[in-house]
Amino acid sequence: MPPTVDSVQAATSTLKGRIERTPLLESKRLNSIIKGRLVIKAECLQTAGSFKIRGAMNRVARLPEEEKKRGVIAFSSGNFGKGLSAACKELNVPCTIVIPEDAPKYKIDACLGYGSQVLLSPVVKGQNREVTAAKLAKDTSASEGLTLLHPFEDFDVIAGQGTAAVEIINQLRDEGISLSDINYLLIPAGGGGLAAGCNLVFEDKCPNTSVYVVEPKGYSDHCESLEVGRRVPVKLPAPPTICDALQAASPGVNTFPINKRCAGGLVVSDAGARLGQQVARTHFGLYLEPSGAIALAAALSGELCLEGKVTIVIASGGSQFATPLREAKL
Known about the structure:
The structure is a single chain. The chain is an alpha/beta fold. It has 15 helices and ten strands. The chain has helices spanning 5-15, 28-34, 52-61, 65-70, 79-91, 105-113, 129-144, 155-161, 163-174, 193-205, 221-228, 256-259, 270-284, 290-299, 325-328; strands at 24-25, 37-42, 72-75, 95-100, 117-121, 147-149, 182-188, 210-216, 264-268, 310-315. The strands form two sheets. A six-stranded mixed beta sheet has the order 1-2-10-7-8-9, with helices on both faces. Strands 5-4-3-6 form a four-stranded parallel beta sheet, with helices on both faces. Strand 4, helix 6 and strand 5 form a beta-alpha-beta unit. Helix 5 (79-91) packs parallel to helix 6 and helix 9 packs across helix 10 (193-205). It is globular.
């Protein structure tokens, strides 16, 4: 059954005590520059370094016991692999990750560090790297009897990602910020799982907030899809980008019916992503990977007027230099 705001609330209960409640951060200096309020949801500080553990943990926790015993497999550009590996380690489920051979080494090492088996998929010129990885994962699932999980199409994954929005709303209330005052929510989008889960929550709790998906230049399939009202794939050959975590071949089959209700899409260049990283370090002390910095970069690009507005930005993932909260507590 497609995810709803109720399934996101159920995921919140499932994840309680299993993941971190990441902070909302503001910079008085930056707010004075933009003449508004810019609030960062620091998912870069989440266990395994990104929001991805939310969906992964919710999905694995709900598997039948027999499937847990056999193990799971998934393809990933890196972050879902890290999140799934961490979830499976905690739940004692065997895990295999198929990851493109050109993925950052620290992401591959992290999967191995959590105890997962890693299969490297080849990067073929003219083919989307995630499509190639997905095929290898599907074939391995069939041959080894592993349960195939999808990084953004699985309904339980989408619901789990939406718990980030539940936290945002609860934290804003704690800060005394009226939900009716939230003007923008900016969310990085690859396959669209995080955006879909958060959209479900904001449609229900903050219907007046304009939700935007943010993508790297050359991978603006959501932006193009929103313009025509149907899923449009990335045009091949796609140019190289430093945003390695946001190279899905197209908006998700299950995520786009939700995300097509977004206010719009924003596109960020590699230079913009680097600027987002710099601003995150300077004003918030956060070490973001380029993909995790593009929503912040989009907020500062001038495409949206932030003056007098409250803007929420999800910093979706950290660089190899970021320290997740759970590790920082050790």
